[in-house]
């Protein structure tokens, strides 16, 4: 399949596109519906284990390809929605989590079997969710159950024979046709720069920096700047002052790692537009206003209160780790000296303890839908939430300055501030 180049944010090679930048397509259905076989048929090779034994798929299986119109996509094969027992309940929870973070759902139902109660409930819920989906009748080689056809008579379904492979092209075509209703996540620099602009990026190389490569927000921002025909300059914080002063024309925007806010702000002009990668990604994921509201919790944080620092990925911790060292140290200096901290990667951990504030990472490894699902769940717990970038901007007196580069600032973000302070 030919890579789609219609949208510069989706024109990267499939094997280089992170899952967070791929359209998430979840294949869901009851056990033995032929979900794994369908995945193999779509990829025209064996990418998932297939067995007549119910419940073969335990953990979600993720495989990537390029689809015309959609660009890089990630197909996710999941456990059956009717899985049973204690382990089955755990597997269905994983399936529900994948569905919540999906962009598109492929509902797989065996053509030769009558509709099951779990399938009927699932399809009703899927319709209510307003999430884009297609229905696929698998095992078409085994014939069609009359009740199944009657049940889906108002659906536009596609029949697939996993043995002979027919129907797979129609499934791919139907998915590509959803391009006009699928929400594409905006790129980091959306609405911020124009062709010919210069962008200056500040990327500290500290103990936590990955060896031999840049972190995902830096990579995405560089690529987006190049796609927009901008000049992109990247320096470490100690090289910033000299580089900045040598520029004949000041950059359209300076973007820094949030941890270097203080040093960067001191080295550039006071009127220089400035923000951070973490704040860019809060905007990119559609949750900047939510995180901004969470900043107000810093004004009345209780003595001995509990802060959960949430991360979206696993990594090896270093001596100056941001989640376990830098944020707690700064928080105790500026907000509440007796504050308690824990680090969590899932809401299940947060649910087990009283929590007064969540400070979330940039979520660069989650797609926008997954971030929204997580933030909605946090809202359901009644816990205020902000993110790394906004916390560091607040701690360094750079709010609202770090938000002013955004064109929506006056209408959306400025009302959060009175006398220059978040309320």
UniProtKB/TrEMBL annotation:
Gene3D superfamilies reported for this sequence: 3.40.50.11410, 3.40.50.11420, P-loop containing nucleotide triphosphate hydrolases (3.40.50.300)
Boundaries of every Hydrogen maturase F tetramerization domain copy: 290-405
Domain Hydrogen maturase F dimerization residues, every copy: 189-286
All copies of domain G, residue ranges: 25-138
Pfam families from the UniProt entry: HydF_dimer, HydF_tetramer, MMR_HSR1
Superkingdom: Bacteria
Entry GO CC: cytoplasm
BP GO annotations: tRNA methylation; tRNA wobble uridine modification
Coiled-coil ranges (or none): none
Molecular function terms, GO-annotated: GTP binding
InterPro entries in UniProt: FeFe-hyd_GTPase_HydF (IPR023873), GTP-bd (IPR006073), HydF_dimer (IPR041606), HydF_tetramer (IPR040644), P-loop_NTPase (IPR027417), Small_GTP-bd (IPR005225)
Protein name as catalogued: Small GTP-binding protein
Lineage summary: Bacteria, Pseudomonadati, Spirochaetota, Spirochaetia, Spirochaetales
């Amino acid at each position: 399949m030919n890579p789609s180049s219609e949208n510069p944010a989706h024109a990267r090679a499939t094997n280089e596109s992170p899952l967070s930048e791929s359209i998430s397509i979840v294949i869901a259905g009851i056990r033995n519906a032929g979900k794994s076989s369908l995945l193999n048929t779509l990829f025209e090779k064996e990418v998932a284990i297939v067995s007549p034994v119910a419940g073969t798929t335990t953990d979600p299986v993720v495989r990537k390809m390029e689809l015309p119109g959609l660009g890089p996509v990630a197909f996710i094969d999941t456990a059956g929605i009717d899985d049973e027992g204690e382990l089955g309940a755990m597997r269905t929870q994983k399936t529900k989590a994948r569905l919540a973070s999906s962009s598109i759902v492929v509902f797989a139902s065996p053509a030769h079997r009558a509709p099951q109660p779990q399938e009927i409930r699932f399809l009703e819920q899927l319709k209510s969710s307003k999430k884009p989906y297609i229905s696929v009748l698998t095992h078409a080689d085994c014939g069609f159950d009359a009740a199944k056809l009657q049940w889906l008579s108002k659906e536009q379904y596609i029949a697939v024979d996993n043995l002979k492979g027919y129907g797979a092209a129609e499934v791919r075509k139907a998915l590509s046709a959803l391009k006009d209703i699928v929400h594409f996540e905006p790129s980091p620099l959306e609405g911020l720069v124009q062709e010919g602009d210069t962008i200056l990026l500040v990327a500290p190389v500290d103990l936590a920096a990955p060896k031999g490569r840049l972190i995902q927000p830096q990579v995405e921002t560089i690529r987006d700047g190049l796609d927009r025909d901008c000049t992109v300059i990247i320096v470490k914080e100690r090289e910033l002052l000299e580089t900045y002063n040598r520029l004949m024309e000041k950059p359209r925007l300076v973007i820094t790692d949030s941890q270097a806010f203080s040093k960067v702000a001191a080295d550039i002009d006071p009127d220089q537009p400035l923000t951070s990668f973490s704040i860019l990604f809060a905007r990119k994921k559609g949750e900047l206003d939510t995180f901004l509201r969470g900043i107000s919790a810093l004004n009345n944080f209780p003595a001995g209160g509990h802060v959960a620092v949430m991360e979206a990925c696993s990594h090896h911790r270093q001596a100056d780790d941001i989640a376990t060292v830098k944020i707690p140290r700064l928080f105790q200096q500026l907000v509440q000296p007796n504050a308690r901290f824990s680090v969590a990667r899932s809401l299940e951990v947060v649910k087990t303890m009283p929590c007064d504030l969540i400070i979330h990472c940039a979520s660069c490894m989650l797609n926008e839908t997954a971030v929204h699902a997580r933030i909605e769940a946090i809202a359901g717990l009644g816990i205020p939430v902000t993110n790394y970038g906004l916390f560091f901007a607040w701690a360094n007196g750079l709010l609202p300055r770090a938000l002013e580069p955004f064109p929506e600032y006056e209408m959306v973000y400025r009302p959060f501030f009175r006398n220059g302070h978040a309320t």
